[in-house]
Write a structure and sequence with these properties.
By secondary structure, the chain is of the alpha/beta class. Helices cover 53% and strands 7% of the residues. The protein is elongated and about 95 Å long.
Length: 464
């Protein structure tokens, strides 16, 4: 059992490293589950681990990828391919012949077509394993590549043949073709996923499973670093930002109601003093009228924080619906108001495109200059910050060793109802190089905010 225990602890540690919240108790629950299942049944093993360790559907792809690395379905070429080679059923392909002209490749493409047509998942997985064994290693290369397999077999080009086999002369372009096309597109995508999983398994087997896990698995969305988010990630982040924006607006409104009591209610105070002989020991105050707060956002959109800038603009777009008044300002080395690009009904992608084309954000160098940007903001938009305003600053506080305009920022913060700074850099990098995080942090409470989890934590902390 020693090797199984090592596998278990390594797998649980890999899940934690990938960002999945797995507690010690949940790890023990999974270990106990191993004692009541058939360890030779891999699907039962997967289900037991998933039931004990996976909390959210979004975490399942990461879990499955790591499970396949730590508990692989096969070793080496796998049983099926090994048997074929023992019987002499396979032959080495001449790499000088283009795949489109190679008879062996054509036979395998026909086999892949038949499998896609049938939709047999187990047979398709076995075929993917064999295909990686044959084509996954390029000549002279030691590693494995899914691109080489997909280039040789080109499964996407089988679509026409698959449709012809299903439609059998029926009119094209109708509902039947759309349904069939969608079904085969899903099967082809599933085959490509099988190839990628098999390549990851081969790499882990040849090198080190921990290293393969770190390279192969992306963190879940809530743990994804904003500065590493791609276009598809930003689309997913956009859906997650709206509920967080609502919570942020609620938290800021609560802080405003708790920060200051309403006006003194003289009549209720005198009435309460009758119980103490006319001495007003306890004052009574009129409740403050609930209102939606006003918000000013000042965000760095320089290249050094480009992905974070995309996220901040998504947040700005979501927040505009939660506040009575939102004014948004962007800067690189000078500042311009970008509120006009986020009008109601505007698409966020169109707003970002228009802002990049029309906003006046570059003064001289086009490199971050927080000092000059703050000075321009004060000179041109000082009226935006009032006692009703929450000021939210977003940026890495790296000013390329330029001026900081600390007195101006202090005056702006004092004029606002409250102020907060979200910094996308890891805290350990603050105050290194040209970072002015400490200087700005003395004026504005600065919070590390690199992912959705940290943003949610910041919002929750506002209530405390």
């Amino acid at each position: 059992m020693g090797s199984l225990i090592d596998r278990h602890t390594g797998f649980v540690a890999a899940l934690r490293d990938a960002g999945l919240p797995v507690s010690v108790a949940e790890g023990l629950d999974a270990a106990r589950a191993l004692g009541v299942i058939d360890l030779m049944d891999r699907q039962a093993l997967r289900a037991a681990y998933a039931a004990a360790l996976v909390k959210r559907p979004a975490h399942r792809p990461v879990f499955d990828a790591l499970f396949d690395l730590w508990f692989p379905a096969a070793l080496g070429d796998g049983v099926a391919l090994a048997a074929e080679r023992a019987e002499g059923g396979t032959e080495e392909r001449d790499s000088s012949i283009p795949p489109a002209m190679d008879p062996q490749v054509q036979r395998e493409r026909q086999e892949l077509r038949d499998l896609l047509l049938e939709g047999d998942e187990a047979a398709l997985a076995q075929f993917a394993r064999a295909a990686v064994g044959r084509y996954g290693r390029l000549p002279g290369q030691q590693s494995w590549f899914s691109s080489a397999v997909l280039q040789a077999l080109s499964p996407s080009t089988l679509m026409a043949s698959l449709l012809n086999a299903v439609l059998q002369g029926r009119e094209r372009g109708g509902m039947a073709e759309q349904v069939a096309r969608r079904r085969f597109r899903e099967r082809i995508g599933r085959f490509e996923e099988m190839v990628a999983a098999e390549v990851r398994r081969r790499i882990a087997e040849d090198s080190d499973v921990q290293r393969a896990a770190r390279l192969a698995v992306r963190p879940p969305l809530e743990q994804l670093d904003f500065n590493r988010a791609g276009r598809a990630d930003l689309d997913a982040l956009r859906r997650e930002v709206y509920p967080l924006a609502r919570r942020l607006a609620t938290r800021l409104a609560q802080r405003q109601r708790l920060a200051r009591r309403g006006r003194l209610d003289f009549r209720r105070t005198v009435r309460a003093s009758l119980s103490t002989g006319g001495v007003p020991l306890t004052t009574r105050h009129r409740p403050r009228r609930p209102h939606r707060p006003e918000l000013v956002i000042l965000c760095d959109v320089s290249d050094s924080v480009s992905s974070f800038a995309h996220f901040t603009l998504l947040l700005t777009f979501a927040l505009r619906e939660q506040f009575t008044k939102v004014r948004a300002f962007a800067f690189i080395d000078t500042t311009d108001e970008i509120t006009r690009f986020f009008a109601p009904g505007m698409d966020v992608a169109d707003a970002m495109t228009a802002m990049a084309r029309e906003a006046d954000l570059v003064w001289i160098t086009g490199r971050s200059n927080y000092g000059h940007a703050i000075k321009v903001f004060d000179e041109k938009y000082r009226d935006a910050v009032t006692p009703k305003t929450s000021l939210l600053i977003l940026g890495d506080a790296r000013s390329n060793y330029g001026e900081l305009s600390l007195p101006i920022l202090r005056r702006l913060v004092e004029a606002a109802r409250n102020a907060h700074w979200l910094n996308p850099e890891p805290r350990r990098h603050w105050n290194t190089g040209d970072s002015a995080a400490a200087a700005y942090g003395e004026i504005v409470p600065m919070h590390e905010c690199r992912n959705l989890t940290q943003l949610a934590r910041f919002i929750e902390d506002l209530a405390s």
